[in-house]
Design a protein that fits this description.
By secondary structure, this protein is of the alpha+beta class. It has 2 domains: about 120 residues, Pdz3 Domain (Roll); about 90 residues, Pdz3 Domain (Roll), CATH 2.30.42.10. The protein has 6 helices and 12 strands. A 6-stranded antiparallel beta sheet has the order 1-2-6-5-4-3. A hairpin with a 2-residue loop joins strand 1 and strand 2. The longest helix is centred in the C-terminal third of the chain and has 14 residues. The protein starts with 8 loop residues before the first strand and ends with a helix.
Length: about 230
């Protein structure tokens, strides 16, 4: 039969949409595994010396991250009915029913009927840094001949100051974490060692960063994800 297309909105580069799942029988399972996205974020970012709250590291976002979607479960079946708004591994859950904390959402997922608010972070984003006499404050390695991988964000420097600003504004999807890739620095792209030279020599830099989360994906999921992002970005 006909059905209403799912309302998908874009918020600051993120794609956001709601999914309602309901267990009608005891056999029904929501059919997805999720992890604590706040804890995962905090592990990838050191305590900041750019922050007055020295006793604690930067706080991560109140999200769950979808790790796996099981075949035959309610979410898998929902995906098959809504190809235009499929949920994929690495999508964030930022609300379950009306709960918006990690603990509240994990509790609420045990209900028989759940409305999940999903958010997909942009694959690429731009970061502007100025050294102002400081170091940029991150370590890199070549990820390929073309781009660099951030191996560590240091507790002090321009990058951490930028990250703290994003965190304070709730822009978690714009924070640079270890394992992300730098594809471009100012006008330099396509050559990892030239990008590294540019980072070393410049006093300010505009970088294109790739989230690079599909290190956790199967090849099929990578293709599916790119197809969907392409569909949204027309």
């Amino acid at each position: 039969g006909t059905r209403e297309p799912i309302q998908v909105e874009e918020v600051d580069g993120c794609i956001v949409w709601d999914v309602t799942l309901k267990k009608d029988t005891v056999e029904d399972k929501f059919g997805f595994a999720q992890v604590n996205g706040r804890a995962e974020f905090e592990v990838r970012l050191p305590r900041s010396e750019e922050s007055p709250r020295l006793d604690e590291g930067p706080r991560g976002p109140e999200v769950l991250i979808v790790r796996r979607i099981n075949e035959g479960g309610l979410l898998h079946r929902w995906n098959e009915r809504h190809p235009e708004a499929q949920v994929l591994p690495q999508d964030r859950i930022c609300a379950v029913n009306h709960e918006t904390t990690v603990e509240g959402m994990q509790r609420e997922i045990r209900s028989r009927r759940i409305t999940l608010r999903f958010m997909r972070y942009p694959e690429h984003f731009t970061v502007n840094l100025r050294k102002n006499g400081r170091k940029l404050g991150f370590r890199i390695q070549p990820a390929s001949l073309q781009d660099l991988r951030v191996t560590e964000v240091l507790p002090v420097g321009a990058m951490m100051a930028y990250n703290m600003e994003q965190i304070d504004g709730g822009r978690w999807h714009r924070v640079v974490l270890s394992d992300m890739c730098i594809e471009k620095a100012n006008a330099i792209q396509g050559d990892a060692s030239a990008i590294a030279e540019e980072l070393k020599g410049c006093s300010e830099v505009r970088m294109r960063v790739r989230r690079n989360e599909h290190v956790f994906f199967s090849p099929q999921q990578v293709r599916q994800r790119l197809r969907m992002l392409a569909a949204f970005n027309g």
